[in-house]
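call fold(seq) -> C-alpha cells
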Amino acid sequence: MATVYFSSARTLRWNYLHSVPGKLEALLEKLDLAKRFAKDDWVAVKTHWGSPGAFRIIPAAMLRKVVDAVGKTGAKPFVTDTVRIKGLDYLEVANQNGLNHLSCGAPLVLADGLYGKDSILVKAGPLLGAIAVASVIHDAPAMIVCSHTKGHINSGYAGAIKNLAMGCVSGRHRDHGWQKGRGSMHCHGEKGLQWDPEVCTFCGQCAEICPLDSIEFKDGRFAYDADTCWHCGRCSRVCQEGALTLPQDDETFMKTMAESAAAVLSTFRPGKVVYVNFLFQIQPECDCMPVADVPVIQDQGIMVSDDLVAIEQASVDMLRKASPLPQSAAADAKVPPGNDILSSLNPRPLQLQIDACERLGLGSKQYELITIEP
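ret:
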C-alpha cells in the first residue's frame, strides 16, 4: 500500500509551523529528498506557469519551499514548464504571475526551448507509439512534480497525471509535428477542428487565444493552418456558441494521457520523481486558459508522495467529498453537497486516467493517507 502525506490548509494557531509554508516544509521532509537526489543533480521542479489572466497557479512562496528543500540536499533545482504560448511570451507571463529567479530561488527554464520544439521521441504505448518528451525533462536526472489540482474540460480533473502527460511533452516535434506532441492526445485519430458556420458569431475569441496565430477568418469563413496548429483545443474550449469543436473520445484520451505519463517517467531511474499536489484555488478550468474563475471548492491542503497513482486517487477522493462554494460555477450549476463537483461541471470519466496509470504499473490506488500537523 502506498503512502500519501497530507496537511490541511487550515491554520489554527498563530505559529509559523502551523502556517501552510511551514506545513509544506514538514511534508517535504517526509519525502527524504537527501536519499533520492545526489549532490549536484539537476532537479526539475515541474509546475504550470499560468497564462495571461490565469493567475491561480502554485505561488512562488510555495515553489520556493520546494526549491529550498532540494537545495539542502546539495542538488541544483530549476523551475520548468513546456511552452504553452510563444516562448518569450510565456517567460513574461511567468514573471507577471510572480514566478522568476528571485521569487522562486532558482532559474526558470523552458523545458522544450523557446520555440517549443526541443524534444526527444520516447517509446510510448500502443495508442501513441511514441511521444515527444521535452528535452530538458528527458535529460534531467530527477524531478519534483508540483501540481495545482483543478477541473478540466477534457480530463475532468487535472493534477499530477496531466502535469506529466501534457506538461512534460512538447506541443510539436521538430520532425513529426503535432502528431507526436500534446495534440496526439487531444486529437487522437480525429480529423481536426470542425467548424459550424450556422452557429458561429465571428466573435474572434478562437483566433485571439490561439498560441500560434494559426487561425483567421477569410471571406467570412473559418480557416486554420494545419501545419502550425498544435491541436491543443483551446480555440474550441473558448467557443461559447459551440461553432468550433475538436472531436474526441474520452476513454482514448484518458488512456493516451496514461501512456504519455508512463513515457515521461521512463526517462528517470526509480525513486527519482516525487509528487506534490496543491489542493488550493480549485477552479473549474485549466491554468492554460485566459481567465481564472473563482474556486469551486474550499482550499483543502497539500499532499506529497512518491506514488503517482496514490496521490492522484487521494486527491480526487478528497475533492469528491468537498462541499461546493457559494457564488461559484458549482453554485451556478446547483451542485448539491456530497456530489462530485468536478465531474458535475465537466462531465468526463476522470477516474479513467488514474485507472489507466495503475494498469501501466505507475502506482497503486490503495493508499494510506497520513495527516501531518504540528
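The longest helix spans residues 250-265.
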